[in-house]
């Protein structure tokens, strides 16, 4: 996992601002983890994506994940912090075997774990109610009934449940949930943790600060954006201190 250069961060902020969160997450990982070929990145399981996003956040934006929650029981709004490194250490592993088949006298199911490419495709489905169906159609693409292709919604519910159960068990970190007790009433809340959103929020917070630095130094010294962003943090801070003094 590399540290994102400031120029890369601004480039991502600019090019991905109209994109969905799964695309933004993939773009961040593509820059921060250049050791992954793009095909490998698209094929990562979602649990593996979460693991890498935690590492990316810890390395580039710090380990602290500031959270806010509203208690559904008493309405109390409260803040708390999660630690990306501790979360990463506790993440359950994704299965090393990302595919499985089920054979019955009538049906043959070929399934695979949802991947980064699936998350991107699903975010572009217009109707969120159909997203799960699209996911199944993608991940159960090789399914047949007496040799003929069959859509997941035409499968017996018990087989579908078995397939969904396997996906969940084989990639338990795909959808991270956090539980915490409300400080006011002690009700236990369970909330999904969207790491793509956390990472993107940091990009959106940092980009205008970087632009302000470029603005301050370019106005004073006439340097180009590339020259300013290419400076070490220490040197840029020293010049900024001079400009402000
Ligand atoms: Zn409460």
Can you characterise this structure?
With 245 residues, this protein is of the alpha+beta class. It folds into 2 domains: 6-93 and 176-206, no CATH class; 99-170, no CATH class. It has helices spanning 6-16, 21-32, 38-43, 46-61, 84-90, 116-123, 131-139, 157-170, 195-221, 225-229, 233-244; strands at residues 64-70, 77-83, 99-103, 107-112, 144-145, 148-149, 177-181, 188-192. It has a 4-stranded antiparallel sheet with strand order 3-4-5-6, covered by helices on one side. A two-stranded antiparallel ribbon has the order 1-2. The longest helix has 27 residues, at 195-221. It is globular. The mean pLDDT is 93.
Question: Which distinct ligands sit in these coordinates?
Answer: zinc ion
| Proportion of residues in helical segments | 40-55%
* Rg over CA atoms: 22 Å
> What is the H/E order?
HHHHEEHEEHHEEHEEHHH
Q: What can be said about the biggest beta sheet? A: 4 strands, antiparallel
Q: Averaged pLDDT, please? A: 93
Structural class based on helices, strands and sheet pairing:
alpha+beta
Query: Please, how many domains?
Result: 2
Q: Give the low-pLDDT segments.
A: none
Number of strands: 8
Strand content: 15-25%
Tell me, what's the shape? globular
- Count the DSSP helices: 11
Strand order in the sheet with the most strands: 3-4-5-6
End-to-end Cα distance = 37 Å
């Amino acid at each position: 996992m590399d540290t994102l250069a400031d120029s890369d961060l601004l480039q991502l902020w600019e090019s991905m601002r109209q994109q969905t969160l799964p695309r933004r997450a993939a773009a961040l990982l593509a820059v921060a983890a250049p050791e992954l070929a793009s095909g490998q990145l698209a094929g990562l399981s979602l649990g593996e994506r979460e693991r890498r996003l935690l590492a990316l956040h810890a390395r580039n934006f710090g380990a602290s994940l500031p959270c806010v929650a509203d208690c559904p029981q008493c309405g109390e709004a409260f803040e708390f912090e999660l630690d990306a490194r501790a979360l990463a250490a506790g993440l359950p592993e994704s299965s090393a075997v990302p595919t499985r088949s089920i054979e019955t006298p009538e049906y043959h199911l070929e399934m695979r774990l949802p991947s980064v490419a699936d998350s991107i495709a699903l975010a572009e489905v217009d109707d969120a109610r159909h997203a799960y169906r699209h996911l199944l159609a993608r991940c159960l693409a090789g399914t047949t009934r007496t040799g003929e292709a069959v859509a997941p919604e035409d499968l017996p519910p018990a087989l579908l449940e078995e397939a969904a159960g396997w996906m969940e068990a084989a990639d338990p970190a795909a959808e991270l949930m956090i539980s915490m007790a409300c400080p006011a009433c002690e009700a236990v809340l369970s909330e999904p943790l969207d790491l793509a959103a956390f990472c993107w929020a940091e990009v959106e917070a940092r980009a205008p600060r970087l632009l302000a630095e470029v603005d301050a130094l370019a106005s004073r010294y006439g340097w180009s954006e590339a020259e300013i962003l290419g400076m070490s943090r220490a040197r840029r801070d020293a010049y900024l201190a001079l400009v402000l003094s």
